[in-house]
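Example A, followed by Example B.
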Amino acid sequence: MPLQERKNHWENIYQTKSLEEVSWYQPTPETSLALIKEFDLPKTAKIIDIGAGDSFLVDHLLDLGFGNITVLDISASAIERAKQRLGNKSPNVKWIVADASDFQPKEQYDFWHDRAAFHFLTDDKEIGNYIQTAADAVSKNGIMVIGTFSEQGPKKCSGIEIRQYSESTLASRFQEHFEKIECFTIDHKTPFDTVQNFVFCSFKRKND
């Protein structure tokens, strides 16, 4: 899907659907929070949430005392909804409206988090752009976590074709610049009582 068409699609989603009407809704992003706890990040760590939409991860990170958080999404409407929800906490977050495959980072991050954005990239060039951006933006020895639909998961999301991954194919995508730490699969129960199988992989940025 062309970039502008993708942007228009997501603007429409966030302008017409409420939080509980989207399949990725999670009041508590338990898997992501568990991984952040596992890596024992300092509260000063630079964290970026890629394709965050109006996810609640930023709320939990602020409550945990993290003070250097960036939220990126293609949809300005999603960013605005998250800002409105956070209220007077929103100035404590850096907000970026950009597509993950066309993002020009101005700083490096200690922790790159992406739950369900990467799998929307199906064009090899866009996938390559994303991987290079992550390689440039994650600090040496920094951590990256990617969560996508697994090969047992859906083939579409929000009416858009996605690219499924196994633990091995997801890890191999990033192997040039990142060393795999661990991969696992997990089920996500949607607000509609359906189950989506995800694969999550965590990586450490190589010192190349």
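Example B, a separate protein, is given below in the same form.
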Amino acid sequence: MTTDEHARMMSANQANWDARTPVHVASRFYGLDQDLDPARWFASFEWDDLGELAGRDVLHLQCHLGTETLAFAQRGARAVGLDFSAVSVAAADGIARKAGLDVTYVRANVYDAVAALEGRQFDVVYTGKGALCYLPDLDRWAGVVARLLRPGGRLYIVEFHPLLNSLGPKPGPGEGPELLLRHDYLSGDGAVHRDATHTYTDGPAVAGATDSFEWMHGIGEVLGALTQAGLTIRRLTESDELPWQRWPHMERTPSGWWRLPEPRIPLLYGLLATR
């Protein structure tokens, strides 16, 4: 697939996230009209891996509404969020202002982040929970991350496990409740095209741009891209919990998150790398 085709698909994704944002801002899923609790989107192992953030420069790539970005500011970081959706960045800025938190938001495609941030480097770059699937080229992305990190800086990825992405979100017509593999675990077959009027949150249909494109990335591909960019892998954690109830038969855990009944499978992973 050519660079022009990738650019066209990412442009469609940008329009789709512009259209999604008003639905997400008003959704019960994000609960922005309730007591804001950014920490609820984090697993406990994330804080262990991220370490002390007070006084650190932290960049959140593909931040959408900035729900996790706010948690970094609450912990004393100099937090910056970057996203390619102008509507998302405007919403995130308003949410931070309402919360009384000092966060800087920048609108840019992640591949253009070095120029958009004027060469600034960070102690921590954070990304995930549905971000990497919107990137067609992980090698290029890893090179950008390496340039954004100071020497000794940390990249932390918390992503939906490729196994989770391979499972359909709900049974098809006439099927039972069993979870089935519906999508590739590994990359290689190009983008998955979706034309969906509703997003992963509650709320009304998306008005306007409903097309989006996603790319599958196995964990091996992620590790390979990062090591080729000169980063060192420090820790990989697999978790069987999600911060929301993806399937009706998931059970609430003591952490407040959700897991499937046995057999246990990985649904989320955390990956720590350093420059």
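On Example B: The chain has one domain: 3-274.
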